[in-house]
Predict the 3D structure of the following.
Amino acid sequence: MSNFSSPIKSVKKEGNFISLFQIVVVFSLAFSLIIVGCGSDDDPVDTQPVEETYIVDGRELVILQGKIAEDRTLSPDYDYLLRGAVFVEDGVTLTIEPGVTIYGEQAENGTLIVAQGGKIMADGTADAPIVMTSDAEIGKRARGQWGGLIINGRAPTNQGVTAGEGDTGDFGGDDPNDSSGVLRYVRVEYAGIEFSPDNELNGIALQGVGSGTVIEYVQVHMNQDDGIEMFGGTVDLKYVLVTGARDDSFDWTDGWTGKGQFWVAQQYGDDADNGFENDNSSKNNEAEPRSAPTIYNVTLVGDPDGPDSDNGMLIREGAAGMYANFIVTGFNKVGLDVNTDSSHKQANDGNLIVKNSTFYNNGVANFGDETGEGSNDDGFDEAGWAKGLGNVETDANLVAPFNKSNPNFTSSSGSSVVTPATPPSDGFFDAVDFIGGVSATNNWTTGWTTGWRTGGRN
């Protein structure tokens, strides 16, 4: 049980600013319970920790801070506020029930961090998603108002055991099957605090996370840095949506070798970078394990009306992998850029494959280096290589991919512009008859997501 001791100064919630004088403070004071054993008067005293809660808009708000050192369950009967960095310790399980809302406190850089050996069991539902968001008023929430979610695992990276950014703990190891728990129907919104220039937190950072971890139906919305970033590890992700990330929507480095299917990214052109930014290691492009994920069925949507929103897919620094059934459209530079000699070699050797996908309406070129139309200044012919793998430059006829308030990433034509590649039959991937991250018969991006949902307190 965490120890809640710091008095709350203000809470902003649901459009109402709640001042100190409007808060009813409810104290669950510590008490001493003497356990009487058989024939002994010297048994230890069991002292419960002090816990501090507040009534805000008729709901009880519980402060979380410091270390969670014992198994704990968060109930939808309460709301929760992260005050500073909150660590789920090694050997501890934090269970978050469906419908729970967790606020990150701006004033104290609220952040939730799962240490190596800790577990987060955040198993929401479509009707009752788990929401992690800013404590600012609705209408005043913006990128970078709290820290986000960081999970540290013991799966391999090509940097060995490494310290995470912003003193978020060590990650990495030698257990590819390591489990850090479950994220299902979880939204992470308005996160990504800046610790220092060019050092912001990701919405969800998966640092050395293993394949025993379940991640599906997850959205990161309006993050200050990358939406989701994998630092090595073997974790798999399914049904994932990133909207409005200020930097890259999906990013990985340090030897991520997991799987992905049914991903969507929608960029907001006021400030955005790449849809995918895929690296192996900037320190050593040939480091092992090499970043080489297997990813099928993705839709990457840039913002041609904004000043930013750069490349759809940037693959570099020795990264490899299999990428199939993609739709990449609306980026202001290029749709696909394979950069650096080390990744060119992976492509020429057949270890980097991008196939059965469409790249359409990307500003400078659909295939090529970002520095100029059809540019080949770094010695690799993206267009020739990509077209030889069954990629096309054809409109996928998405219904409303650029709409920020009511997007629709399904195809209006109801058919694929290229023949979909068959994913591996390994228990993770689903068989598909379409390209892109969303099918006309299963628009999984609606109902539980932010921005265009209807109803709910959040």
The mean pLDDT is 87. The CA atoms of residues 95 and 121 lie 5 Å apart. The first strand starts at residue 11 and ends at 13.
